[in-house]
Design goal:
Length: 244
């Protein structure tokens, strides 16, 4: 049961993060929603005014973490969902693009977990869910150097953090989706609709991408006591893609 628990969600204004925040609110969770889209944050607060604390914040402002999160309540869970995708082929490699993506996808969740642990904001029994991907830890794709690197790094971080946080009975696991029907996937303008449909055919279970509700259900599982003896692990949701 997650009702009345305090859970922080980053990336709560778009994609999986927004869907996860809504799903948790419907389950009676008190959500601390972190994101950059002020209008989306206001929408969350409007629909669940007694359950939502919003923080409009750019997670790459690392020097401001201590003051920004100092007023948080004790947390029962954290969902690190903030992330971006960007193509950066080696032949045209941009260090600036690479660093920006790494800052958001990799450094931000690590820095956030470290700050919450330092500040004693994680209750005993708390669960942390990192949104990784099959891209990086399990598969590769041309042009995705930065994205794949960032997601693979999260799985390595989770294994180390699981050991460091175990004495506090705090768990940390990674969720590894394949492609999911979200704004992030839809916004990849370099991919045509024909190529997108062809890519869906590569997913054995239904020849489709995951629905966002299938991912949020897995997030709830990892946050709940039903996964109470799981830590440092990778949960794959890919319709059988990696089994091929």
């Amino acid at each position: 049961m997650l009702q009345d628990k305090n859970i922080l969600v980053t990336g709560a204004t778009s994609g999986i993060g927004y869907a996860a925040a809504c799903d948790l609110l419907d389950a009676g969770v008190n959500v601390v929603a972190v994101g950059r889209n002020v209008e989306r944050l206001a929408k969350l607060a409007q629909h669940h005014p007694s359950q939502v604390q919003t923080i409009a914040f750019d997670l790459t402002r690392f020097a401001d973490y201590r003051t920004t999160f100092a007023g948080l309540p004790a947390l029962d869970g954290v969902v690190c969902s903030a992330g971006v995708a960007d193509s950066n082929p080696l032949r045209f490699f941009s260090l600036e693009k690479y660093q920006r993506l790494i800052d958001i996808n990799q450094t931000a969740p690590i820095a956030l977990v470290a700050e919450l642990a330092r500040a004693g904001k994680l209750r005993s029994g708390a669960s942390i869910v990192l949104l990784a991907s099959i891209l990086g830890p399990k598969i590769g794709r041309p042009g995705a150097t930065a994205y794949a690197s960032s997601k693979a790094a999260l799985t390595g971080f989770a294994k180390v953090a699981a050991l460091e946080l175990a004495n506090k009975l705090v768990r940390i696991n990674c969720l590894l989706p394949g492609m999911v029907d979200t704004e992030l996937a839809d916004g990849q303008t370099e991919v045509s609709q024909e190529a997108r449909q062809a890519d869906m055919q590569r997913y054995p279970l239904g020849k489709r991408y995951a629905q966002v509700g299938e991912v949020t259900a897995a997030i709830r599982f990892l946050l709940s006591t039903e996964s109470s003896f799981m830590t440092g692990q990778e949960l794959i949701i890919d319709g059988g893609f990696c089994s091929q």
